[in-house]
Amino acid sequence: MRIGMFADMYKPHLSGVTNYISLYKRRFEELGHEVWVFTFGHTDYADDESRVVRSPAIPWGDTGWQMGLVLTSEAKRVIPTLDVAHVHHPFVSGRVALDYCGSAGIPIVFTNHTRYDLYSDTYAWFMPKTMRYNYIRRYLKEFANDIDIVFAPSPGIQRWLSEFGVTDDSVFLSNCVDTEPFRSPAAPRSREEFGFPADSVVFCYLGRVSAEKNMGLLTRAFIRTAGEVPGAYLLVLGTGTSLAEAMKSFEDAGLSDRVRFAGLTPYAEVPDYLAATDVFVTASVSETHPLVIMEAFAAGLPAIGVHSPGVSDIIEDGVTGFLTPEDAGAFAARMTEIATDPELRQRLASAAATAAARFDVRIMAEELMGHYQRLIRERADRAASE
Q: By 3-state DSSP, what share of the chain in percent is helix, strand and coil, each rounded to 5?
Protein backbone atom coordinates (compact mmCIF):
# COMPACT_ATOMS: atom_id res chain seq x y z
CA MET A 1 0.00 0.00 0.00
CA ARG A 2 1.14 3.54 -0.78
CA ILE A 3 0.29 5.81 2.15
CA GLY A 4 0.64 9.60 2.18
CA MET A 5 1.10 11.52 5.44
CA PHE A 6 0.30 15.24 5.06
CA ALA A 7 1.67 17.70 7.63
CA ASP A 8 2.26 21.46 7.70
CA MET A 9 5.59 20.83 9.46
CA TYR A 10 7.77 17.81 10.09
CA LYS A 11 11.35 17.19 11.23
CA PRO A 12 13.44 18.95 12.44
CA HIS A 13 10.42 20.43 14.22
CA LEU A 14 9.86 18.43 17.40
CA SER A 15 6.28 17.76 18.47
CA GLY A 16 3.84 15.02 19.28
CA VAL A 17 2.51 15.16 15.72
CA THR A 18 6.00 14.74 14.27
CA ASN A 19 6.60 11.73 16.51
CA TYR A 20 3.19 10.29 15.62
CA ILE A 21 3.90 10.44 11.88
CA SER A 22 7.45 9.12 12.24
CA LEU A 23 6.31 6.25 14.45
CA TYR A 24 3.56 5.05 12.11
CA LYS A 25 5.78 5.58 9.07
CA ARG A 26 8.47 3.33 10.52
CA ARG A 27 5.97 0.66 11.61
CA PHE A 28 4.12 0.54 8.28
CA GLU A 29 7.41 0.37 6.40
CA GLU A 30 8.45 -2.56 8.62
CA LEU A 31 5.25 -4.25 7.44
CA GLY A 32 6.22 -3.72 3.79
CA HIS A 33 4.15 -0.62 2.94
CA GLU A 34 5.42 2.50 1.20
CA VAL A 35 4.91 5.67 3.23
CA TRP A 36 5.42 9.21 1.92
CA VAL A 37 5.46 12.41 4.01
CA PHE A 38 4.37 15.59 2.25
CA THR A 39 5.30 18.67 4.25
CA PHE A 40 6.44 22.29 4.05
CA GLY A 41 9.55 24.22 5.01
CA HIS A 42 13.12 23.28 6.00
CA THR A 43 13.86 22.41 2.37
CA ASP A 44 17.59 22.28 3.16
CA TYR A 45 17.13 19.77 5.99
CA ALA A 46 18.92 16.44 5.44
CA ASP A 47 16.27 13.82 6.18
CA ASP A 48 17.44 10.55 7.69
CA GLU A 49 14.52 8.68 6.13
CA SER A 50 13.33 8.15 2.60
CA ARG A 51 10.23 9.50 0.85
CA VAL A 52 9.94 12.86 2.61
CA VAL A 53 8.83 15.48 0.07
CA ARG A 54 9.27 19.09 1.16
CA SER A 55 7.76 22.13 -0.50
CA PRO A 56 8.86 25.73 0.19
CA ALA A 57 7.22 27.70 3.01
CA ILE A 58 7.55 30.76 5.20
CA PRO A 59 7.82 30.05 8.96
CA TRP A 60 5.13 31.62 11.16
CA GLY A 61 7.33 33.28 13.79
CA ASP A 62 8.77 30.76 16.24
CA THR A 63 5.60 28.66 16.46
CA GLY A 64 7.01 25.92 14.22
CA TRP A 65 4.09 26.29 11.81
CA GLN A 66 4.95 26.69 8.12
CA MET A 67 2.96 28.77 5.64
CA GLY A 68 3.20 26.66 2.51
CA LEU A 69 3.73 28.48 -0.75
CA VAL A 70 3.65 26.07 -3.69
CA LEU A 71 3.97 22.32 -4.20
CA THR A 72 7.08 20.90 -5.78
CA SER A 73 6.79 18.97 -9.02
CA GLU A 74 7.71 15.79 -7.14
CA ALA A 75 4.78 16.24 -4.76
CA LYS A 76 2.40 16.85 -7.66
CA ARG A 77 3.69 13.72 -9.38
CA VAL A 78 3.55 11.35 -6.40
CA ILE A 79 0.34 12.38 -4.62
CA PRO A 80 -2.07 11.08 -7.32
CA THR A 81 -0.42 7.64 -7.10
CA LEU A 82 -1.32 7.12 -3.40
CA ASP A 83 -3.77 4.53 -2.13
CA VAL A 84 -4.76 6.56 0.94
CA ALA A 85 -4.03 10.04 2.32
CA HIS A 86 -3.71 10.74 6.05
CA VAL A 87 -3.92 14.43 7.02
CA HIS A 88 -2.40 15.68 10.28
CA HIS A 89 -2.98 19.44 9.92
CA PRO A 90 -6.21 20.66 8.35
CA PHE A 91 -5.01 23.97 6.97
CA VAL A 92 -2.21 24.08 4.37
CA SER A 93 -1.44 20.36 3.98
CA GLY A 94 -5.09 19.47 4.52
CA ARG A 95 -6.13 21.62 1.58
CA VAL A 96 -3.41 20.02 -0.54
CA ALA A 97 -4.78 16.56 0.24
CA LEU A 98 -8.33 17.61 -0.63
CA ASP A 99 -7.28 19.31 -3.87
CA TYR A 100 -5.03 16.54 -5.20
CA CYS A 101 -6.45 13.37 -3.62
CA GLY A 102 -10.14 14.17 -3.71
CA SER A 103 -10.14 14.67 -7.46
CA ALA A 104 -8.15 11.44 -7.91
CA GLY A 105 -10.62 9.36 -5.89
CA ILE A 106 -8.10 8.65 -3.12
CA PRO A 107 -9.59 8.10 0.39
CA ILE A 108 -8.65 10.82 2.89
CA VAL A 109 -8.56 10.53 6.68
CA PHE A 110 -7.76 13.23 9.22
CA THR A 111 -6.47 12.97 12.79
CA ASN A 112 -7.46 16.00 14.88
CA HIS A 113 -4.30 16.29 16.98
CA THR A 114 -4.92 19.78 18.35
CA ARG A 115 -7.42 21.87 20.29
CA TYR A 116 -7.35 24.65 17.73
CA ASP A 117 -9.62 26.83 19.84
CA LEU A 118 -7.16 26.85 22.75
CA TYR A 119 -4.16 27.35 20.47
CA SER A 120 -5.85 30.40 18.98
CA ASP A 121 -6.08 31.85 22.49
CA THR A 122 -2.27 31.86 22.58
CA TYR A 123 -1.28 32.63 19.00
CA ALA A 124 -4.20 34.78 17.77
CA TRP A 125 -5.17 36.50 21.01
CA PHE A 126 -5.26 39.87 19.22
CA MET A 127 -8.46 38.83 17.40
CA PRO A 128 -11.85 38.78 19.15
CA LYS A 129 -12.50 35.37 20.66
CA THR A 130 -15.95 34.97 19.13
CA MET A 131 -14.57 35.73 15.68
CA ARG A 132 -11.71 33.26 16.10
CA TYR A 133 -13.88 30.45 17.41
CA ASN A 134 -16.54 30.94 14.74
CA TYR A 135 -13.91 30.80 12.00
CA ILE A 136 -12.26 27.66 13.43
CA ARG A 137 -15.63 25.96 13.92
CA ARG A 138 -16.81 26.74 10.40
CA TYR A 139 -13.52 25.76 8.78
CA LEU A 140 -13.16 22.46 10.65
CA LYS A 141 -16.79 21.53 10.05
CA GLU A 142 -16.47 22.10 6.30
CA PHE A 143 -13.15 20.25 6.25
CA ALA A 144 -14.60 17.28 8.17
CA ASN A 145 -17.49 17.06 5.72
CA ASP A 146 -15.00 16.45 2.89
CA ILE A 147 -13.04 13.76 4.79
CA ASP A 148 -13.80 10.03 4.80
CA ILE A 149 -12.88 9.56 8.48
CA VAL A 150 -12.07 12.06 11.24
CA PHE A 151 -10.02 10.34 13.94
CA ALA A 152 -10.13 11.59 17.53
CA PRO A 153 -7.05 10.49 19.52
CA SER A 154 -8.98 10.48 22.82
CA PRO A 155 -12.57 10.27 24.05
CA GLY A 156 -12.17 13.82 25.38
CA ILE A 157 -11.33 15.15 21.93
CA GLN A 158 -14.17 13.12 20.45
CA ARG A 159 -16.52 14.95 22.83
CA TRP A 160 -14.91 18.30 21.98
CA LEU A 161 -15.34 17.76 18.23
CA SER A 162 -19.03 17.19 18.83
CA GLU A 163 -19.58 19.95 21.40
CA PHE A 164 -17.59 22.50 19.35
CA GLY A 165 -19.80 21.72 16.37
CA VAL A 166 -17.23 20.07 14.08
CA THR A 167 -18.63 16.54 13.72
CA ASP A 168 -20.63 13.94 15.61
CA ASP A 169 -19.12 11.13 13.54
CA SER A 170 -15.47 11.09 14.60
CA VAL A 171 -13.82 7.71 15.23
CA PHE A 172 -11.75 7.16 18.37
CA LEU A 173 -8.27 5.92 17.50
CA SER A 174 -5.84 6.20 20.39
CA ASN A 175 -2.43 7.75 20.00
CA CYS A 176 0.44 5.33 20.48
CA VAL A 177 4.14 4.99 21.25
CA ASP A 178 6.83 2.42 20.68
CA THR A 179 7.05 1.21 24.27
CA GLU A 180 10.20 -0.93 23.88
CA PRO A 181 12.87 1.86 23.90
CA PHE A 182 11.27 3.37 26.99
CA ARG A 183 11.15 0.08 28.85
CA SER A 184 14.80 -0.64 28.00
CA PRO A 185 16.69 2.62 27.28
CA ALA A 186 19.89 2.19 25.29
CA ALA A 187 22.09 4.52 27.39
CA PRO A 188 20.21 5.51 30.54
CA ARG A 189 21.30 8.76 32.14
CA SER A 190 21.81 9.13 35.87
CA ARG A 191 20.45 11.95 38.03
CA GLU A 192 23.98 12.72 39.17
CA GLU A 193 24.83 13.78 35.61
CA PHE A 194 22.42 16.69 36.07
CA GLY A 195 23.80 17.60 39.48
CA PHE A 196 20.97 15.95 41.39
CA PRO A 197 21.72 13.92 44.54
CA ALA A 198 21.38 10.15 44.30
CA ASP A 199 18.55 10.13 46.84
CA SER A 200 16.59 13.00 45.26
CA VAL A 201 13.11 12.77 43.77
CA VAL A 202 13.30 14.12 40.22
CA PHE A 203 10.23 15.48 38.44
CA CYS A 204 10.41 15.72 34.65
CA TYR A 205 8.67 17.92 32.10
CA LEU A 206 9.07 17.19 28.38
CA GLY A 207 7.63 19.46 25.70
CA ARG A 208 7.49 23.04 24.54
CA VAL A 209 8.24 25.55 27.26
CA SER A 210 5.51 27.93 26.18
CA ALA A 211 2.30 29.59 27.30
CA GLU A 212 -0.07 27.09 25.66
CA LYS A 213 1.56 24.37 27.77
CA ASN A 214 0.66 26.27 30.97
CA MET A 215 4.30 26.55 32.06
CA GLY A 216 3.47 29.33 34.49
CA LEU A 217 1.32 27.02 36.58
CA LEU A 218 3.91 24.26 36.55
CA THR A 219 6.62 26.73 37.57
CA ARG A 220 4.59 28.03 40.49
CA ALA A 221 3.68 24.50 41.59
CA PHE A 222 7.30 23.33 41.68
CA ILE A 223 8.40 26.41 43.61
CA ARG A 224 5.85 25.51 46.29
CA THR A 225 6.84 21.85 46.28
CA ALA A 226 10.55 22.66 46.53
CA GLY A 227 9.80 24.73 49.61
CA GLU A 228 8.14 21.74 51.25
CA VAL A 229 10.43 18.95 50.00
CA PRO A 230 14.21 19.64 50.12
CA GLY A 231 14.90 16.55 48.01
CA ALA A 232 12.66 17.58 45.10
CA TYR A 233 14.32 18.50 41.78
CA LEU A 234 13.05 19.27 38.29
CA LEU A 235 14.42 18.34 34.85
CA VAL A 236 12.97 20.29 31.90
CA LEU A 237 13.43 18.81 28.42
CA GLY A 238 12.49 21.30 25.73
CA THR A 239 12.56 24.96 24.87
CA GLY A 240 10.14 27.64 23.81
CA THR A 241 8.86 31.17 24.21
CA SER A 242 8.40 30.89 28.00
CA LEU A 243 11.88 29.54 28.71
CA ALA A 244 13.46 32.81 29.87
CA GLU A 245 10.48 33.60 32.07
CA ALA A 246 10.57 30.17 33.72
CA MET A 247 14.31 30.37 34.33
CA LYS A 248 13.95 33.79 35.93
CA SER A 249 11.12 32.59 38.17
CA PHE A 250 13.25 29.74 39.51
CA GLU A 251 16.24 32.05 39.89
CA ASP A 252 14.16 34.59 41.85
CA ALA A 253 12.95 31.76 44.08
CA GLY A 254 16.53 30.67 44.76
CA LEU A 255 16.01 27.33 42.99
CA SER A 256 18.47 27.54 40.10
CA ASP A 257 20.44 24.62 41.58
CA ARG A 258 17.29 22.51 41.87
CA VAL A 259 16.16 22.85 38.23
CA ARG A 260 17.99 21.82 35.06
CA PHE A 261 16.98 22.96 31.58
CA ALA A 262 18.38 20.37 29.15
CA GLY A 263 17.04 22.06 26.00
CA LEU A 264 15.83 20.25 22.91
CA THR A 265 16.40 16.53 23.26
CA PRO A 266 16.67 14.22 20.23
CA TYR A 267 13.70 11.90 20.33
CA ALA A 268 15.89 8.79 20.28
CA GLU A 269 17.53 9.97 23.52
CA VAL A 270 14.33 10.75 25.42
CA PRO A 271 14.14 7.27 27.03
CA ASP A 272 17.69 7.77 28.35
CA TYR A 273 16.75 11.07 30.00
CA LEU A 274 13.51 9.74 31.48
CA ALA A 275 15.53 6.97 33.15
CA ALA A 276 17.08 9.63 35.41
CA THR A 277 13.70 10.80 36.73
CA ASP A 278 10.90 9.59 38.99
CA VAL A 279 7.66 11.42 38.11
CA PHE A 280 6.37 13.08 34.94
CA VAL A 281 4.54 16.42 35.29
CA THR A 282 2.56 18.58 32.87
CA ALA A 283 0.13 21.42 33.52
CA SER A 284 -1.02 21.65 29.89
CA VAL A 285 -4.77 21.77 29.22
CA SER A 286 -4.48 21.97 25.41
CA GLU A 287 -3.59 18.32 24.73
CA THR A 288 -5.58 15.82 22.69
CA HIS A 289 -4.02 12.56 23.88
CA PRO A 290 -0.45 13.43 24.86
CA LEU A 291 2.21 11.05 23.66
CA VAL A 292 4.62 12.33 26.31
CA ILE A 293 2.47 10.84 29.07
CA MET A 294 2.29 7.50 27.26
CA GLU A 295 6.07 7.58 26.90
CA ALA A 296 6.46 8.38 30.58
CA PHE A 297 4.23 5.44 31.48
CA ALA A 298 6.29 3.15 29.26
CA ALA A 299 9.40 4.36 31.11
CA GLY A 300 7.74 3.43 34.40
CA LEU A 301 6.96 6.98 35.52
CA PRO A 302 3.66 7.97 37.12
CA ALA A 303 2.29 11.30 35.92
CA ILE A 304 0.65 14.36 37.43
CA GLY A 305 -1.54 16.47 35.14
CA VAL A 306 -4.38 18.95 35.13
CA HIS A 307 -7.85 17.49 34.69
CA SER A 308 -8.63 18.27 31.03
CA PRO A 309 -9.58 16.49 27.77
CA GLY A 310 -6.80 14.19 26.61
CA VAL A 311 -4.80 14.20 29.82
CA SER A 312 -7.73 12.84 31.82
CA ASP A 313 -8.19 10.10 29.22
CA ILE A 314 -4.72 8.73 29.98
CA ILE A 315 -3.99 9.35 33.66
CA GLU A 316 -6.19 7.32 35.98
CA ASP A 317 -6.35 9.41 39.12
CA GLY A 318 -4.85 7.61 42.09
CA VAL A 319 -3.83 4.61 39.94
CA THR A 320 -1.26 5.71 37.34
CA GLY A 321 -0.76 9.21 38.75
CA PHE A 322 -2.83 12.18 39.82
CA LEU A 323 -5.23 14.63 38.19
CA THR A 324 -5.63 18.06 39.75
CA PRO A 325 -7.66 21.22 39.17
CA GLU A 326 -5.97 23.99 37.18
CA ASP A 327 -4.53 25.43 40.37
CA ALA A 328 -0.87 25.69 41.38
CA GLY A 329 -1.59 24.93 45.02
CA ALA A 330 -3.52 21.75 44.22
CA PHE A 331 -0.84 20.65 41.75
CA ALA A 332 1.93 21.31 44.28
CA ALA A 333 0.06 19.31 46.94
CA ARG A 334 0.10 16.22 44.72
CA MET A 335 3.77 16.75 43.84
CA THR A 336 4.58 16.95 47.54
CA GLU A 337 2.53 13.86 48.32
CA ILE A 338 4.20 11.71 45.70
CA ALA A 339 7.67 13.04 46.54
CA THR A 340 7.36 12.18 50.23
CA ASP A 341 5.78 8.73 49.92
CA PRO A 342 8.12 6.16 48.27
CA GLU A 343 5.58 3.34 48.53
CA LEU A 344 2.90 5.42 46.80
CA ARG A 345 5.39 6.42 44.11
CA GLN A 346 6.29 2.78 43.45
CA ARG A 347 2.66 1.65 43.33
CA LEU A 348 1.74 4.35 40.81
CA ALA A 349 4.86 3.64 38.74
CA SER A 350 4.05 -0.06 38.50
CA ALA A 351 0.49 0.64 37.37
CA ALA A 352 1.71 3.21 34.82
CA ALA A 353 4.13 0.71 33.26
CA THR A 354 1.33 -1.86 32.97
CA ALA A 355 -1.05 0.68 31.42
CA ALA A 356 1.49 1.64 28.74
CA ALA A 357 1.09 -1.70 26.98
CA ARG A 358 -2.30 -0.75 25.52
CA PHE A 359 -0.75 2.25 23.73
CA ASP A 360 1.89 0.28 21.82
CA VAL A 361 2.27 1.12 18.12
CA ARG A 362 2.11 -2.53 17.10
CA ILE A 363 -1.46 -2.71 18.32
CA MET A 364 -2.63 0.67 17.04
CA ALA A 365 -0.97 0.34 13.61
CA GLU A 366 -3.00 -2.79 12.98
CA GLU A 367 -6.20 -0.92 13.84
CA LEU A 368 -5.31 2.05 11.65
CA MET A 369 -4.40 -0.21 8.74
CA GLY A 370 -7.82 -1.83 9.05
CA HIS A 371 -9.48 1.56 8.51
CA TYR A 372 -7.28 2.27 5.49
CA GLN A 373 -8.07 -1.09 3.90
CA ARG A 374 -11.81 -0.73 4.49
CA LEU A 375 -11.90 2.70 2.82
CA ILE A 376 -9.93 1.44 -0.17
CA ARG A 377 -12.30 -1.53 -0.58
CA GLU A 378 -15.35 0.73 -0.35
CA ARG A 379 -13.94 3.09 -2.98
CA ALA A 380 -13.18 0.14 -5.27
CA ASP A 381 -16.67 -1.31 -4.80
CA ARG A 382 -18.31 2.03 -5.62
CA ALA A 383 -16.13 2.45 -8.70
CA ALA A 384 -17.04 -1.06 -9.90
CA SER A 385 -20.76 -0.42 -9.50
CA GLU A 386 -20.75 2.84 -11.47
A: 45, 20, 35
- What residues form DSSP beta bridges with 38? 6, 53
Helices (H) and strands (E) in the chain, counts: 15, 15
Q: Determine phi and psi for 363, rounding to 5 degrees.
A: -75, -50
**DSSP-derived pairing of the beta strands 232-237 and 149-152:** unpaired
Q: What is the pLDDT of residues 235-259, one digit of tens each?
A: 999 998 899 999 999 999 999 999 9
Q: Tell me, what DSSP letter sits at residue 177?
A: B
Mark out the alpha helices in 65-115 (DSSP H runs): 73-78, 92-97
Low pLDDT (below 70) residues in the chain: 61-65
Overall pTM > 0.90:
no
Which domains can be identified in the chain, with CATH numbers? 2-176+360-385 (3.40.50.2000), 179-358 (3.40.50.2000)
Residue 227 CA to its chain's centroid (Å): 31
**Cβ-based neighbours of 341, under 8 Å, separated by 6 or more:** none
- Selection from 111, 36, 102, 41 nearest residue 71 by Cα: 41
Residues forming a β-bridge with 101? none
Would you state the pLDDT for residue 51? 98
**Which residue type sits at 159?**
R
